[in-house]
Design goal:
- The chain has 195 residues and is mainly alpha-helical.
- 62% of the residues lie in helices and 4% in strands.
- It is built from eight helices and two strands.
- Strands 1-2 form a two-stranded antiparallel ribbon.
- The longest helix is centred in the last third of the chain and has 26 residues.
- It is globular, with a radius of gyration of 17 Å.
Length: 195
């Protein structure tokens, strides 16, 4: 399978912001590649529809933005401070892949069940409008943080435990790309061949 989502692996705050910008542009293009019917159709393997993936990504990413806009003393009171250095992007990705391999599920961050949609076009438009705001709002919030603070403060992750803010951003970046890759691969697999 060829990779559809591309961004430079980030280390610094500026690189993280740049990677989220690239990811935002690519996902907007991806979601627009589907007709209304395709956008809400669940794949034959029982996975989530593109719409359900978008809903899940909104639910999973928006709390990170809210946390980054909270007063930092509140974050420290609630979650403590980091006592070890932040892991790399690849280490966070590996930890997430490990919990997925062990059967971890989205839990309350999962999408609603796919009920029938009365007005697919309007529902899709509302969902994609929300998506259009998610990553830009996150990158704006990241802009308020200095490099050292990303490694000092922590946030809770439902599967990975307490992460530094930098690690949470690495997770969020990989998580969005991971779901976009799944959706893109399913679309490619369902496309008629050139035979």
């Amino acid at each position: 399978m060829t990779q559809w989502i591309h961004y430079e692996t980030p280390d610094t705050r500026g690189q993280i912001v740049t990677a989220f910008g690239a990811l935002h542009a690519q996902t907007v293009v991806l979601w627009q590649r589907f007709s209304d019917d395709e956008f809400f159709k669940r794949p034959a393997d029982g996975g989530w529809s593109p719409a359900q993936n978008v809903e899940h990504l909104i639910k999973a990413t928006s709390p990170v933005t809210r946390a980054l806009t909270m007063p930092r003393f509140v974050l420290r009171l609630l979650f403590g401070r980091a006592r070890v250095p932040s892991r790399t992007f690849f280490e966070v990705r590996a930890a997430y892949r490990d919990v997925l391999a062990e059967g971890a599920q989205a839990g309350s961050y999962g999408p609603r069940s796919s009920a029938s949609i009365d007005d697919a076009g309007r529902t899709r438009q509302r969902l994609l409008h929300r998506w259009q705001l998610v990553l830009p709002q996150l990158t704006e919030a990241i802009g308020r943080w200095d490099e050292a603070s990303l490694d000092y403060y922590r946030l809770p992750h439902p599967l990975l435990g307490k992460l530094t803010v930098r690690e949470m951003l690495y997770f969020s970046l990989y998580h969005v790309g991971h779901h976009a890759e799944i959706v893109a691969a399913r679309q490619a697999d369902s496309a008629p061949g050139d035979a």
